[in-house]
């Protein structure tokens, strides 16, 4: 009976909170979460955590692929910077000889990429694949805790956050979310290869993201508890993966 009510709630309230681009991925994710919940009989908070962690771990091969690509890029970076400077200097001369020098440097750069099996886009393939997925997950969770009341999310929590459609009355979940995000950022870039030092721009970005982690607590404290269960479940596997890389 509860499953039928939950299914009717999904149909009656199709996920559209993310707009047209995210509506279909949101429908798939909502169906996945609902299916896991109804099949396993797990409470909603555990369903969200288990599904999120499983999806996160399933993306590990993609993250390993990106990490290896970044490592190969780091090996050739000194030579890459040198050739890039030569290309820029040759073009800046504005003469035939300068353009010839720039073209020679460009061809050497292509050969360097080919020799080390490096493609610049490979270093961001992880982000390109994951960002749309996690945005879809976020919009789905916001939709489910705000619209799909018939699913039982209002009684699917645990401990002090029994109602996943309400905010945490003690603000423990926002603090946990900020802390796990801060820890994840502190351990380094998600795709950073082990033993590869961050450059100045990456260090600045990490400092900025640490600030974002701190600001998350007061700026998202009013979010529903179900959203924080999702966020914390997303952060923790990434933190564990980074710790294992450092060993």
Radius of gyration of CA atoms, rounded to a whole number: 23 Å
SSE run? HHHHHHHHH
User: Alpha-carbon distance between the termini?
Assistant: 49 Å
Q: Find the structural class using helix and strand composition.
A: mainly alpha
- Overall pLDDT metric: 81
Number of spatially distinct domains = 2
Hey, roughly how much beta strand do the residues contain?
under 5%
Q: If helices are DSSP runs of H or I spanning 4 or more residues, what is the number of helices? A: 9
Major beta sheet summary:
none
Number of E strands = 0
Helix content: over 70%
Choose one word for the global shape. elongated
Low-confidence stretches: 1-12, 14-18, 243-247
Family: Belongs to the OXA1/ALB3/YidC family.
Pfam family, one: 60KD_IMP
GO molecular function: membrane insertase activity
InterPro entries: YidC/ALB3/OXA1/COX18, YidC/Oxa/ALB_C
Write a structural description:
The chain has 247 residues and is an all-alpha fold. The protein folds into two domains: 178 residues, no CATH class; 58 residues, no CATH class. 73% of the residues lie in helices and 0% in strands. Helix 1 packs antiparallel against helix 2. The protein is elongated. The relative contact order is 0.14.
């Amino acid at each position: 009976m509860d499953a039928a009510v939950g299914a009717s709630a999904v149909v009656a309230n199709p996920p559209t909170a993310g707009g047209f681009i995210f509506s279909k991925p949101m429908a798939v994710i909502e169906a996945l979460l609902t299916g896991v919940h109804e099949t396993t009989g797990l409470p909603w908070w555990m369903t969200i955590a288990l599904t999120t962690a499983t999806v996160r771990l399933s993306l590990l091969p993609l993250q390993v692929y990106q990490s290896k690509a970044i490592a190969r890029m780091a090996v050739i970076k000194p030579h890459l910077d040198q050739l890039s400077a030569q290309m820029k200097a040759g073009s800046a001369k504005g003469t035939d000889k300068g353009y010839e020098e720039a073209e020679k440097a460009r061809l050497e750069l292509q050969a360097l990429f080919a020799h080390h099996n490096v493609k610049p886009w490979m270093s961001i393939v992880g982000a390109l694949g994951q960002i749309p997925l996690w945005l879809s997950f976020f919009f789905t969770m916001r939709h489910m805790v705000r619209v799909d009341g018939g699913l039982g999310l209002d009684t699917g929590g645990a401990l002090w956050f029994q109602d996943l459609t309400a905010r945490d009355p003690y603000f423990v979940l926002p603090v946990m979310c900020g802390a796990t995000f801060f820890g994840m950022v502190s351990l380094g870039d998600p795709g950073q290869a082990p033993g590869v030092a961050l450059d100045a721009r990456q260090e600045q970005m990490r400092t900025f993201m640490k600030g974002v982690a701190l600001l998350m607590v007061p700026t998202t404290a009013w979010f529903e508890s179900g959203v924080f269960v999702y966020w914390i479940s997303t952060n923790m596997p990434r933190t564990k993966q980074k710790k294992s890389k450092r060993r």
